[in-house]
Amino acid sequence: MKEVVVLGAGYAGLKTVVLLQKKIKDNVHIILVDRNDYHFEATDLHEVAAGTQTPSRISYPISDVVKPNITTFIQDEVVGVDTANKTVKLAKHAELLHYDYCVVGLGFVSESFGISGVDENAFPMTDVDEAKTIYNHIIAKMQDYQQSKNPDDLHIIICGGGFTGIELAGALVDARPSYAKIAGVDPSEIKITLIEASTRLLPMFSEKLADYGVNLVKKLGVQLFDGSRISRIEPGKVYYKHGDDTEEQTQSAGTIIWTTGVSGNPLMAEAGFKERRGRVMVTDHLNDPDHDDVYILGDVAAVMPPDGKRPYPTTAQIALAMADFTAEDIASRIKTGKRKAKAFTYKSLGTVASVGNTRGFGEAMGHEIKGYTASAMKKIIADRSLMETGGVKELLSKGRFDLYH
Ligand code: NAD
């Protein structure tokens, strides 16, 4: 009997479990560990933060997909991985988990780059609870405005105009009328500001397409300060330096959200993996270079494309592709004692940013797409992710065939 221990029920971990359950019927016991008893779609967190989707619409219980005859789910915090002794330590379970194969899919954390005041004064948006906290805070500020008449209560600042910042700005634009109603003001009085260090946003896209996206967000009334590097955050205040200016400028707001990028789970460093910003450069079979019984997937992995220049960006799509490969490789090792002959390869279906519910931009299958088409494509990609982890049941239960909820 082989023990497969899967750490993390995100896109990579959960899909590995779902596939292993289909591929191997005997001689395997799977243990899945996650701190939550639900899986959530990290690509939709911005919608929960804005309040345009409910938490239940972007998450489902892990028990829906776990087959108890093969898999044991443990809700706990992973606190250590001992690769020499092949064990995993959990926070609440006294006993160590022993593995023959370990799949590490422990996900990402918000990266503050050591900038002063970020942890205390800006909201991260990396899981469902954090996204709910942001939404509740925005609503509380709108309610406060009724008494305070302080325009800062109506102001939301997004720090970092990457993919996440742009998508969040779009969702906040959609939610603006509902905020305005609570505050008792006109929607145009709800101010949304993006502060971004670079002058060339979204470098994964051509300049023309990135400009289209940035202009789309601006046309919807989002104020953009580009070329503006944030230097510190104080309660209700973001300080930044524009271009080569040495003098700081400031913007004040009731809500400050931090989306300047992510790094892999810090546990990777604590467990002794050779990592950079929580990401381990994996082998062509997605293993830790020092341990071929440990697979490292999703946001804690760095995978080099054939050109060897920069690792692929971390996305849900590549995490799911890594799970496909890993499940096949582990199944093959258990059943035949041999590994998959071919190395992991990846071809992106496309990258699309949504700007609210009905607009978007990006590229899919070599073509640049914009507007409504892009928005529909984004939802198709997201539905595919949900289908791949949760199956038809979750797709139907979330009503996701309706592309415009
Ligand atoms: P990111 O690193 O892509 O973007 C962060 C942005 O913050 C950058 O534009 C950076 O210049 C800016 N920034 C950093 N420090 C700053 C500072 N001090 N002041 C001002 N601006 C600063 O991070 P992300 O947007 O969180 O995305 C993380 C990963 O997830 C990326 O690989 C992204 O492609 C992926 N993602 C994909 C999708 C999608 O496919 N729809 C959606 C969201 C995220």
Mean pLDDT: 93
**Which radius of gyration do the C-alpha atoms yield?**
22 Å
**Helix-strand category:** alpha/beta
Low-confidence stretches: none
**Total E-strand runs:** 26
Percentage of β-strand residues: 25-35%
Bound molecules: nicotinamide-adenine-dinucleotide
Q: What is the rounded distance between the termini?
A: 46 Å
What global shape is seen? globular
Q: Tell me about the biggest sheet?
A: 6 strands, mixed
How much helical structure, as a percent, in the residues?
A: 25-40%
Descriptive overview:
The protein is α/β, with parallel strands linked by helices and 405 residues long. 32% of the residues lie in helices and 27% in strands. It has nine helices and 26 strands. The strands form eight sheets. Strands 5-2-1-9-22-21 form a six-stranded mixed sheet, covered by helices on one side. The protein has a four-stranded parallel sheet with strand order 13-12-11-17. Strand 14 and strand 15 form a beta hairpin. The longest helix has 27 residues. The site of nicotinamide-adenine-dinucleotide has 26 residues, from helix 5, strand 14 and strand 24. Nicotinamide-adenine-dinucleotide (NAD) binds next to helix 5, strand 14 and strand 24.
